[in-house]
Design goal:
The chain is mainly α. The protein has four helices and no strands. Helices cover 73% and strands 0% of the residues. Helix 1 crosses helix 2, helix 1 crosses helix 3 and helix 2 runs antiparallel to helix 3. It is elongated, with a radius of gyration of 22 Å.
Amino acid sequence: MELNSVLLTAGGSIGFFKLVNCGVRKLPIPVSACRNAWKWRNICTSFTHSLMTGIWAVLCFFVHPQMAEDLIGTHSVFSHALVSVSIGECVWMGRGKGKGYVSCPHIVLRSWFRMKRNQAQEVFSRVRNTLLVTSPNNNTGDN
């Protein structure tokens, strides 16, 4: 996907989520949420994003089944557009009042995934090394 397409999709996503947020403003707010109406709108907008991208992610695997085998090396324009839409939602939600409310969970999730990825790499590396050492075809000359 070209940079222009990514920027256009992300920009369209910002506009879409702005419209969703404005639409939620017209809906009645529960009494318990009246004190933080902005938070109620952000949660509703975030829920819309989650619902939309959750269905979209499943469709990405349906449209491009090769992604199930190699998620890093294979992708489609459809999956790139999904990422662009999510970037647009993060940009829309990360502005103005409640900025920390939205950005903190994203920072925590990124850190958690990075940590889990590193742990998984370490575990697989140790299992691989153990298998190499215990392999009957070990030709390292250590016997």
